[in-house]
Amino acid sequence: MDRGTERADIGDHMPYADPKRKREQAKGYREAHRENDRARKKANYRLHSEGIKAAHKAYRATNQKKVLMWRRTHRERIIALKRIYRSAHKKEERAYRVAHREQFKAYTKAYRKAHPEKRREIDHRRRARKLAAHGSWSAKDLLVLRGILGTQCLRPDCCTPTDRVAVDHIIPLAKGGSNQPTNLQLLCLRCNARKGVQRIDYRTEEQRRKIFRAFQLPLFGAA
């Protein structure tokens, strides 16, 4: 047997000589021993939890941009995993919140004060969910709207700055309006209260076009 034939035979019996076969064999092994691997990792985490947590914390502190980019890229996956975890640990989470109620209250109050735009986003989303209204908007979307609509209340006879802006639904949620950014306008608190549940659009035609273009929707799409 010559040397070339001998090497070919060795390659047939040694999958690690071929990177592709090596990956396939490793994948097959992991799938066949998935439960054992999970049990081993859980046991290892219980034994070395403090060291693992410290290592993860140190990594996040030194790689903040990389961690932030990963979270943005895998946002939907993170949300899905959190929902799965919460549904499987409802009793533990409820007990923890009851035991640390004052800490949660203080944290929530400080967060809402420091992030008013995010607070409005969450409040509107909760209200829209109760009324079964489709669509949602974020604090980032609100910045886009500010750039198009300006910093003054949109009502013609009002010139109040929108520093304490009220995000108004042109078609009210209670009357079937959506929670899409295209159904929003910026009014001061007084004008928003005065408008009530009326269907009044204070935006100009040009502003409407820019908004629908910014959110990549047809001009006469669902508001």
In what range is the share of β-strand residues? under 5%
**Strand arrangement, largest sheet?**
1-2
Instruction: Give a short account of the largest sheet.
Output: 2 strands, antiparallel
Describe the global form. Answer: elongated
Q: What is the top-level CATH class of the largest domain?
A: Mainly Alpha
- Strands, total number: 2
Amount of helix: 55-70%
Pattern of helices and strands: HHHHHHHHHHEEHH
Describe this structure in words.
By secondary structure, the protein is mostly helical. It has 2 domains: about 5-85, no CATH class; about 115-215, DNA Binding (I), subunit A (Orthogonal Bundle). About 65% of the residues lie in helices and about 5% in strands. The chain has a two-stranded antiparallel sheet with strand order 1-2. Helix 10 (about 140-150) packs antiparallel against helix 12. The longest helix is centred in the middle third of the chain and has 15 residues, at about 115-130. The protein starts with a helix and ends in a 9-residue tail after the last helix.
